[in-house]
Amino acid sequence: MLIEDIASGPGSEPGRAERAEPEDLSSLYETMGTSKQIIHVYEQVTLVAPTDFTVLIHGETGSGKELVANALHHGSARHDRPLVPVDCGSIPATLIESELFGYEKGAFTGAERTKLGKFEVAAGGTLFLDEISNLPLDVQPKLLRALQEKQIWRVGGMQPIAINTRVLAACNQELLGLVHAKKFRGDLYHRLNEFSIEIPPLRERIEDIEHLALRFVAMTNRELHKHVTLSRAALETLLLYPWPGNVRELRNDIRRAVLQARTEILPEHLSLSHAHPGARLPFSDNGVKFDGTISLKQIVHEATADVERKVLLQVLQQTQGNKAKAARLLRVDYKTIHGKIKNYGIGSAPRDEMRLAP
After folding, report:
1. Where in the chain is the domain with CATH 3.40.50.300?
2. pLDDT digits 0-9 by tens, 148-200
3. pTM of the predicted model, to two decimals?
């Protein structure tokens, strides 16, 4: 996609390029990419958005969970009512209950007036509970009761209050693992998980990197009144990086690169250009640094997949996207390489078809 195409696309007006267009679910393609993984996310959003299902959105930090939540809300019959986000990871445990459910005047020292909680603020609309895995254990049964009974009790309140609020939740941890570890209630997990949407990390949808990079270049050019282009060498650097910070990291790095570049972004303008390519894995140049977060089997699997993806990408670049030639060079059959390219989401267009600066 040409930079001009991106600049004239939906959601590209000044001051509006950072968020999805409320009226158009297809804006997910603009803001998240066009890979088969994002098409699947879009299909799931389109399916469940018109319902009142509680949706659990899984994804790593920076992968776009809030964009999906926005699309779910704006694709529902509640789109003309508030979408109220609550970051469960940033509110102190002692305050989260009153933040969600509100409190009555005199409920505690300092409660000089009645305050509505986020459930009531979002009345008729959608409540988005981000980082739900951080919700304290003692508040979890109260949230479960609110979801099941469709009513809440303010802190210090004597009467229940009926609510008509759809709930979306998001987490960057595997909630089922927290359930097994007794750190999250199983009954609440199942109540939240009426429908789930998994957002793949950027490293698993490589073909979105070019689309997003060009989009961020165009956005930053407009912001800074510049006309910087993205070089092939810089694109190749972006494609080989594993993006532990996902789309948010890509956006920030592109913004810095556009600021620094005069006419063209080169690898040296990218702060990641000297980063260790396996940064997301528990490895270093001196060997393994096991941090206990994943199993040995998963470490081996991710390391193998990371190397395989890089080799495939390099050989496809050498062969100008010719899969048959790449298969011969790698001494595998065509069916095998075709399957691996599809699995890794590697775009195999010849380099002379990449619409980038020469």
Report:
1. 35-198
2. 999 999 998 889 999 999 999 999 877 888 899 899 999 999 999 999 999 99
3. 0.71
Q: Widest CA span of the chain, in angstroms?
A: 77
Extract the tokens encoding 149: 């009974």
Q: Residue 305 half-sphere exposure, CB side, CA atoms within 13 Å?
A: 17
Backbone dihedral region for residue 300 (phi beyond 0: left; psi -120 to 50: alpha; all else: beta): alpha
Check the CA dihedral 113-119-124-127 and report its sign.
Answer: positive
For the stretch 93-148, pLDDT in tens is: 889 999 999 998 888 888 889 999 999 999 999 999 999 999 999 999 999 999 99
Would strands 161-162 and 151-152 be described as parallel, antiparallel, or unpaired? Answer: antiparallel
Topology of domain 35-198, per CATH?
A: Rossmann fold (3.40.50)
Structure token digits, residue 113 = 């007036």
Distance separating alpha carbons of residues 49 and 25, to the nearest angstrom: 9
3-state SS of 155-177? ECCCCCEECCCEEEEEECCCHHH
Q: CATH 1.10.10.60 region(s) of the chain?
A: 285-358
